[in-house]
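Re: your question from the hallway

Yes, I did run it. Sequences:
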Amino acid sequence: METTVSNKQVILRDYVKGFPKESDLMIVIASDTVELKVKPGSGAVLVKNLYLSCDPYMGILMREPSPSTLALMDSFVPGKPIAGTGVSKVIDSDDLAFAKGDFVWGMVDWEEYSTVNPAGVFKIDVNINVPLSNYTGILGMTGLTAYAGFFEICSPKKGETVFVSAASGAVGQLVGQFAKLMGCYVVGSAGSKQKADLLLNKLGFDDAFNYKEEPDLDSALKRCFPKGIDIYFENVGGEMLDAVLLNMKTYGRISVCGMISQYFLETRDRLQNLPDIIFKRIKMEGFACYDFMDKFPKFLEFVLPYIKEGKLIYVEDIVEGLENGPRALVGLFNGQNIGKQVIQVARE
Amino acid sequence: METTVSNKQVILRDYVKGFPKESDLMIVIASDTVELKVKPGSGAVLVKNLYLSCDPYMGILMREPSPSTLALMDSFVPGKPIAGTGVSKVIDSDDLAFAKGDFVWGMVDWEEYSTVNPAGVFKIDVNINVPLSNYTGILGMTGLTAYAGFFEICSPKKGETVFVSAASGAVGQLVGQFAKLMGCYVVGSAGSKQKADLLLNKLGFDDAFNYKEEPDLDSALKRCFPKGIDIYFENVGGEMLDAVLLNMKTYGRISVCGMISQYFLETRDRLQNLPDIIFKRIKMEGFACYDFMDKFPKFLEFVLPYIKEGKLIYVEDIVEGLENGPRALVGLFNGQNIGKQVIQVARE
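Structure:
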């Protein structure tokens, strides 16, 4: 039986300027092979990575860090593997909390095998009957993001109107479904007819539109929300935010999860409607899921019964092979994905 | 003894486009004279206006209303007097709550004599030994604005860093003093050396700068806040807000009271740093003082002892004569005023 294996990795070539490209990343075989045993006394946990999560914030971490982005997270390091959340199988462990054969999720480098920090991974309960890939999404940080951003930041009430941009994405599809479960009226925008159809026909949104086909976003929002928007779950920024501000109701709340349309622009969209924040006494609040880790048990308590009853569904876009990771990640910034973008690195 | 008098008024000529000008307002003598007695049974309260408040929001109300501005307040009506808060003396009253000779403050039209809605004015306690003009400012809506916007929206803590723009203005000077009373480190910006000196030498700010003399606002803020800003009290918007976002700390709070630099621009300033709201999990919240009327007693309880002890001072810029009202009000939008702009319509 082999005791060492090679380790394929996805490396950041150099800090990205402008829009991330596939060529900003490269696939390498690490010069060090991986020994499939951990040293006794090391406290280490060695895992084989099965699924990797592609998330918009990773595009920010591909860029040169600034004091602003460092407030969120350290950038990736040129010449080193990029990282994100993933689902992995324990190959060997010197930590009592993990045993060979356990499945875990947490932060891992983009590679086939990782030695992980035991404090940074969570054991997966295999009695919960969901695909393992779900721990990159609905049952992982993505789910917590949707939960905290909607419930904690927006304090939704039954009957309120909710708009979600990038609504078929990893987070958006959950926010829309959470809002429906709360008895809200929910509209989503997405970047293709296929995605808008998904929102309407599969995810239970009350209405949806393809923003690329709307000559005027303000008109689209007025059509969907003749009486205005109580809650906006912000994933995109720029001209969509500007149009939303015009259509917010008094005391509206904006949960700022992302501004993916703006991150890579040298000159960002001009907003004409920021004074609406005063006129309508709008609260706009940025958040990051890791500030809400203490809410994780409460989140699971909320979400698991709905998953078991089939009342929450989750659309994933799974690409097979670590070598296809760069294309999948960069595709996220162009809206190529339909649902949560996941990379399957290995079968168990 | 005369029983009717003429009534000078300040009339909005037509909805203002672009920047308000003195010529957008005109002084007229109302065609109806004012009878100095109210009709028994009418429930009316007739007042003689002594002081009128000039406030930035009045510039918004001079423009054609939009669904956005209507969420704040109705616009002024072309051909009719403009309105705002004022201090008045009761001439005659058919309301039991008010007697001839009482002093009141509340909403009045810009004119010499007004018949006011008794529900919209508050009796002034003359035992509180402050100038009557203060009820347009520190003891009126302006004071409540500073109080609610700082304490209710920003939840300040001792030792936090606070930045106030338009800091020598009606609201800003109070926010800065409130912040010092809370044990915060406070810096203000203003539009002249004289105003910056006022902040430093009279109002007790820890530091101050004249934004017009700063080649780069980001550098100015970095100089004043090497470790960043916890709380920004926003009065101006535009490029100042953009620079502030770069200098906010994680979990920073922005109380959005006004964006006076932006209201009258056809093309508003482009902001490059809105994604900092996410990176730093910033809360940005618009507010209007009238949403906090229930806090008025608590506000007085807080502010009156400090006024009595001389620990809060209030700088007013009083212009005499209603006929000088248009110049004073328009001057506000150019930063002509030093401190709270008030018009003295009459001596008692």
